[in-house]
Amino acid sequence: MKTILNVIWLVLSGVWLFLGYCLAGLILCVTIIGIPFGIAAFRIALYALWPFGYTTVERRDAGAASCVGNVLWLVLAGWWLAIGHIVTGLALCVTIIGIPFGIANFKMVPLSLLPLGREIVPTDAPFTSR
Questions:
Q1: What per-residue confidence (pLDDT) applies to 23?
Q2: Which residues, listed in sequence order, are joined to residue 54 by a DSSP beta bridge?
Q3: Where are the alpha helices (DSSP H) in 1-130?
Q4: Which of 3, 28, 91, 92 could be a cystine partner for 37, CB 3.0 to 4.6 Å?
Q5: Closest by Cα among 45, 118, 111 to 78
Q6: Contact between residue 120 and residue 54 where contact means Cβ atoms under 8 Å apart
Q7: pLDDT score of 128
Q8: How much of the chain, in percent, has pLDDT values that exceed 70?
């Protein structure tokens, strides 16, 4: 079932969200200071490409640096990516078939706003990284 959902997701919104995150990652990697943010964008890009079967968990070892990084991320790229998820989610919720995919987009909004200090893990083992 995960594979079917992921293939439909890929066609409806996954490719565009993946390209958005990759563009944000490339722009952020232009400067040395932005490289950690670019890496986070590429990590989320893969999650946006194939989200069903994965979830995000909070990293317990994330400290004050990830908090400061999240504030910078929010200003630099977070708002634009979150707006992309909201617009795509609303567009998908217009049809009955698209509602689960719209909800998946809405679930990705917090991750797109504050990605540092979070880890993407398979849904089979969401507590193994703790």
A1: 92
A2: 122
A3: 2-9, 15-28, 35-49, 64-73, 79-92, 99-113
A4: 28
A5: 111
A6: yes
A7: 58
A8: 95
Dist CA 47 CA 45 (whole Å): 5
Structure tokens given for 92: 């998908």
Angle at 60 between CA 32 and CA 124, to 5 degrees: 105
3-state secondary structure of 41: helix
- Assess contact for 117 and 66: CB atoms under 8 A: yes
pLDDT at residue 39 is higher than 80? yes
- Reduced to 3 states (helix: H, G, I; strand: E, B; else coil), residue 67 is helix
Extract the tokens encoding 1.
């079932």
Q: Tell me the three state secondary structure of residue 54.
A: strand
Tokens 């009955």, residue? 96
Q: Residue 87: pLDDT above 60?
A: yes
Question: Rg of the chain's alpha carbons, rounded to an integer?
Answer: 15
**Contacts for 64-71: CB closer than 8 Å, 24+ residues apart:** 66/116, 66/117, 67/116, 67/117, 69/36, 69/37, 69/116, 70/114, 70/115, 70/116, 70/117
